[in-house]
Amino acid sequence: MRETFNFCAGPATMPYNVLKRAQEELLDWHKEGASVMEVSHRGKAFVALAKECESDLRELLDIPANYKVLFLQGGGLAQFGLVPLNLLGTQIGDGKTTVDYLETGIWSKKAMLEGARYAGVNTLYSGKADGYVDVPHQNEINVNPDSAYLHLCSNETINGVEFHYDIKNCPIPVVADMSSNILSKRIDVNQYGVIYAGAQKNIGPAGLTLVIVREDLLGKASPYVPDALNYTLQAENDSMLNTPPTFAIYLMSLVLKELKEKGGLEEMEKLNHKKSFMLYDTIDNSRLYRNPVHVDARSNMTIPFTLADPTLDALFLKEAEQHHLINLKGHRSVGGMRASIYNAMPIEGVIALTNFMKDFEARHYG
């Protein structure tokens, strides 16, 4: 285990065993005589790896057969525009000129602003006035049946709110940005039309973008979508229309194997609840630390908190680094601190952080 615990929001800490395995195989992968970064993406060895990677993902998430899995590039940010471009292209003539959005934080707001470039936007919920400290309950979401889809961000990394439920039986396709909590818990994929996620939180390194799309939503792309970013063309070519991010796919395959070895998403969900409870309990039983998010909307992945005395912020970060706890500074838009405790953060890291927080408060805010 590493001596330093990295709480970066992304690119985030990677599983130690995965990095060790990659290090061992870096120069000669599967006796190919070359690194996995050097072999052809169309060669038998890599094609087999990609297929096995998809198979493991399907098993972990229980992805139905009528969904395509795409390995793309551009990050979640690119999908803010690519979702409407891929889903609205042939629907506009049929009257589908609007899309519904849930604005629960900075990332869903960015997605909504991008979506507005391609369609009329209905903001069904906005938490902006309250500082993005909550998410709507399902009975509060009244979708427009004439909209092409409903978009949400399942976990807001900056604001620290998370949807702890799948929207059931929505009359229009649900599109979810799951960049920061995919693979952290069980979900019902059947309730979604599109799931997308940048890899750099729970999947692997930056550079890979995962898209899971229901087959009936293919074939709707705008003619202006570049081929490499067209869901339909990529699905028809098993994500090999152009050169995919091969090293990232390789690392993703190792991450998925480790998740399976640890008991799958059911066990991961239990561990993530345990880690987040420890940190929230420390915050809630403190006079120095505060988390503003409503309890039932608190994220299990990204936990922002502030200090009652902001003049202690710099000292907190300095001493944290001395205790080998790094990248705890909050996002520049909200300040304070942020602890990202994705799947790869071991419980020992959370224990070390909470012990430090208690000690720091006793010494500087007693």
Automatic annotation (TrEMBL):
EC number, as in UniProt: 2.6.1.52
Residues binding pyridoxal 5'-phosphate, per UniProt: 107, 157, 177, 200, 242-243
Cellular localization per UniProt: Cytoplasm
DNA damage among keywords: no
Family per similarity comment: Belongs to the class-V pyridoxal-phosphate-dependent aminotransferase family. SerC subfamily.
NCBIfam families: PRK05355.1, serC_1
Protein name as it appears in the record: Phosphoserine aminotransferase
